[in-house]
Amino acid sequence: MSGPFKRRPSLKALPNVGLVKAANIQRRQSAVNLKPVSISQQEVPWDVLDRCLLPVVFCHAAAIVISTMLNTLHISQVSTLTLFIFFAITTIAAVLFYHNLKVTAAGKAVLITGCDSRIGNALARHLDEQGFTVFAGFQNANDNPIAEELKEECSGRLHVLQLDVSSETQILAASLYAVEHLPDGAPGLWAVIHATSWVALGEIEWIPPQVMGRRGVWMSRREGL
Predict the structure, then answer these.
(1) Do residues 133 and 110 lie in contact, with contact meaning Cβ atoms separated by under 8 Å?
(2) Distance (Å, rounded) from C-alpha 42 to C-alpha 127?
(3) Looking at residues 91-101, what average pLDDT do you find?
(4) What residue range is the signal peptide (predicted)?
């Protein structure tokens, strides 16, 4: 090769330290100057709007009726719009107050059947974390690893019961146990949650015993298969 030879700079050469620092500073400034998410992107409280819609409609109807009666009887000359605004403000304030009320778990007991299932087990754990006294009923509580695990991981407010909803004897025994272990001052169970896979709907006096015990028969057949 003829002529002067120029060596190309190596691609592995380290970049300038000053440029790296400047780039890092710009990245930090851009991260600090990030704008928060706008309020319009937040989820719309549809449950609150749904609760307020029907009361507002009734307020409009009540305003029309009352305004017509007052004007007809010459008691007071009040416009429909004035009554509607008054009723709407009062009703919406009451609805929002009721919507924001929180249930106090202290001193409340809940009985859950079918804690062998996932939904019953998860519900028992959640209510125990909220502070409720939980009576967890199992189809077979003796030597049941699910029942033992639930009792170990939850607080002392959770009680494991042997409760087959198709057995009158076990239902009576579970009710007596729940009455004896209610929280102080509790008049009775605050809620009963039926989480088993079978339920018979109707008046208890009209349902045959065979229908009530169908779940136990189905379980025995499934285990036999």
Answers:
(1) yes
(2) 28
(3) 85
(4) none
